[in-house]
Amino acid sequence: MKQPTSIRPAEGKLGVLLPGMGAVATTTIAGVLLARKGKGVPVGSLTQMGTIRLGRRTDKRVPKIADFVPLASLSKLEFGGWDIFPDTAFEAAEHAKVLEGHHIAEVRDELEAIHPMKGVFYPGYVKRLHGTHMKVARTKADMVEQVRDDIRTFKRDRGCDRLVAVWCGSTEAYLTPTAVHATVQSFEEGLLKDDPMISNAQIYAWACIKERVPFANGAPNLCVDFPAVWDLARELRVPIAGKDFKTGQTLMKTILAPGFKARMLGLAGWYSTNILGNRDGEVLEDPDSFRSKEVSKLGVLEHILQPDIYKELYGDFVHKVRIDYYKPRGDQKEGWDNIDVFGWLGYPMQIKVNFLCRDSILAAPVVLDLALMLDLAQRADLQGTQEWLSFYFKSPMTAPNLYPEHDLFIQLMKLKNTLRWMMGEEPISHLGTEYYD
Description:
Blueprint: E1 13-19, H1 23-36, H2 46-49, H3 65-68, E2 77-83, H4 89-96, H5 101-106, H6 108-112, E3 117-118, H7 140-157, E4 160-167, H8 184-192, H9 200-210, E5 215-217, H10 227-236, E6 239-242, H11 249-262, E7 266-276, H12 279-283, H13 287-305, H14 311-314, E8 318-325, E9 334-342, E10 348-356, H15 359-379, E11 384-385, H16 408-422
Parallel strand pairs: 1-2, 1-4, 2-3, 4-5, 5-6, 6-11, 7-8
Antiparallel strand pairs: 7-9, 9-10
Helix pairs in contact: 1-4, 1-15, 7-8, 7-9, 8-10, 9-10, 11-13
């Protein structure tokens, strides 16, 4: 990336478009509305609560990130999106049952004013959902044009100066790139021919990038991680990021596994299982959708532990992941991990983790941060894959032929060093010229 010489100010309204107006999206929207009224605290958001050290420790320069880089303020955010169900954001939030009634009631009027635009939905990619609020198009190319028209209409009608988009929709069936994904020309020909390897998420992403709207993929779908999109994003100077929000069980893995590796503790096996009862859990009952999630989850440990280098410690570990839909649990996902480690002389030990988390509560600050960071990236004239945002994803996108960095702490260092670099500050390396620098 080329270091920006200037960053355009965050003036005017920032429109945040969310494909998929379900539990994650409405929890994000309601939380932002509550925070800007002083009725809630945006816990978990690095942009709102995080700090960044500048210079030497003795300088005592530790501003909040929001005071260091020119981010859009919460008061300037305007929300919209698409869904295959016609519920307002208020109705969707009530249905999701993530937030308590008193929180939803505080921002009811604002939530009721947010009506989703008709969604793009070819059912073969998400077999467990049956929508009632969907676009109809002659071809997938026409579908892209309808989404582009939505984007322009939203921007005009809501008086937005800039837009960003964050995918909050369901996990789609597992797809791998094919010839249609190779170039901009092949993809656009595929749209005209209704190529079956072009999914709903890809249509949204293509439309957004065509409209120069930065796009983050919060699911494990094949979406913005293939050559045609990379080329289009660079050509139109649009930042993109992905994929799959790092929230519950995988977040814990990226915290614990670096600790095992740092202490050179061996791993014999890691068994993970989840139960959840929200729409995401229902979608993941389909084996094709589960395969997308499984691939996303399984890659984390292999990349962190580097079994090809540390064969004695990690060359033969077993990694299993299970997800079960259990309706009574709703959005309150429960994850169990059994971790078989070994230490000095190979003696075995066990660690048990039981994380009773709230899926959308953990995802909402990620959505907010990605929206603000991608807007910052575009105003700094950064384009293409924003690898420095790997901190937020289970399957971080990288430049071609590079392996992804999954270690949460390295990811955070990279994110903060990128912010320092953007603002002309020295990166922190802990290799100063003075003792105790």
